[in-house]
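Input chain follows. Return structure tokens only.
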Amino acid sequence: MTEQGYPPRRPHHPGRSGPGRPASRSSQEPRRTGWQVIDAFDEGPDPDSGLPPWAVPGGIEPVRPGPRPRRPRGPDQLDGPGQAPRRDQERPGRLRGLPGRSRAAAARRRRSKRRLTTWGGAALVVLVLVGAGLYLTRSRLAPSRFVTTLQPGEFRGVPDACKIYARADLRQLMNGTPKSIQPQNGQQQSSCTYTVDAKPTFRVLTIVVQAMQAGLVPVGTSNGSATANAKYTFVQQRQQLAKPPKRTPQPPATITTISGAGDQAFSALQTFRTKVATDVVIVLARYRNVLVTVRFEGHAGNGFGPVPASELRSGALAVAQAALSHVKGEPTV
């Protein structure tokens, strides 16, 4: 029979096997297929030993060599015979356009960018709709009953209390040349005090003009406006004069309502009995959000006085009316 090829090449180390391959037969066990040298102690020749290796099923068991060190592959090398090129080598031109990035990563970035754009636009639309809804519904809400700013017709400031009454009229009222003291003079409140201390006259005149302001916290039952606060203060002062707090030296005052002096006005007469008798007349008048308080007192005793209470009352009322006329000349809101 003609020889049909070369016998299989045996590895240098027949006892070793490649990675992932079954170990070869032990060197102690003689092979019973293929071409081999017959041992004298063998059981006998195999009847199929004369056949070529490809005629016997499983006759040739190729022994693969061990793993070889990998060599760096070029862009034109393939993984093996009959295999398709690697995926990263299919389109080298595109990869050179995106160094180190795959098409999948680029697609993921595009999808992430689209999601960000979509959700950002949706969030912006929601914010615009919510703002528009709040703006449209705000006008439908019931307005607050509390007032925190000055209203039209109310006064922001007051005149100088020391310039309300003329000097000549003041000397006649005080029965002498008065000395003035101005403890306070501001935009919203001004006060001035005149005194005459020359026997037999001792008189004291005090003028206070105050423009009430709107408050963030309403007082009493008012709505917090400047005029409402002035009304509330007017009523409180009248009640305190008519019924002073306990354990105070002030006696109850005799209250008389005055008409024709602003929006509201009254006079209160108090008599103090100490070593000398002191009569005090207080005139309180309100015009819108402005309160005018005039206190006129005269002493009788130790060489002073007496001063009739009617004279004190008429003098205080004249000063209060002069103060109101100056207040009406002030600018309003």
